[in-house]
Amino acid sequence: MGFFKDIFYSSDIEKRLTGDWFSDLNNDETAKEIGDVRLCFSRKKLVYEIRLPDKAQIINMTFEIKNTKIITDQPSYPQKEETDFYFDEAGGLILRFNGLESRFIKKRL
Questions:
Q1: How far apart are alpha carbons 94 and 65 in whole angstroms?
Q2: Whole-number Å distance between alpha carbons of 70 and 84
Q3: CA distances from residue 41 to 17, 18, 26, 30, 47 in whole angstroms, order as listed
Q4: pLDDT at residue 36 above 60?
Q5: What domains lie within the chain, and their CATH numbers?
Q6: CA 1, CA 81: separation in Å to the nearest integer?
Q7: Which helix (H) or strand (E) is 7 found in, with range?
Q8: What is the spatial distance between Cα 59 and Cα 79, in angstroms, rounded to a whole number?
């Protein structure tokens, strides 16, 4: 039974993650530590875009959800990384990586 719970739980979370998330530049820690970033989650793929004034750096990754962790892997430089995550009461995505906490806001259509 736990196996099916994990499948459906991950599926529900993945549905909630799907779409474009932008770093919350009104959050002081996020603005200071990561700056202007866009995350685009879709079907086990994650595009991490660092948005600079004169260019964008794009990192293509794969991801999976395991409990409260997003596990990413970058095919061009294989190495799995784990990031803790949760959704705050306002619907923001909170990522905790290497002791830093960053907040993202989902783009609404």
A1: 14
A2: 6
A3: 6, 5, 22, 19, 7
A4: yes
A5: 2-106 (2.40.128.280)
A6: 28
A7: helix 2-17
A8: 13
pLDDT tens digit sequence for 8-21: 445 677 888 999 99
Euclidean distance between CA atoms 105 and 51, whole angstroms: 15
Cβ contacts of 3-7, under 8 Å, gap ≥ 24: none
Stated pTM of the model: 0.84
Establish how many alpha carbons lie within 13 A of residue 40's alpha carbon, considering only the half-sphere containing its beta carbon.
Answer: 6
The DSSP-derived string for 11-75 is HHHHHHH-EEEEE-TTSHHHHHHT-SEEEEEETTEEEEEEE-SS-EEEEEEEEEEETTEEEEEET
Three-state DSSP state, 94:
strand
Q: Which tokens in the block code for residue 16?
A: 């909630």
Q: Over the Cα atoms of the chain, what is R_g?
A: 14
pLDDT digit string (tens) for 52-63? 999 999 999 999
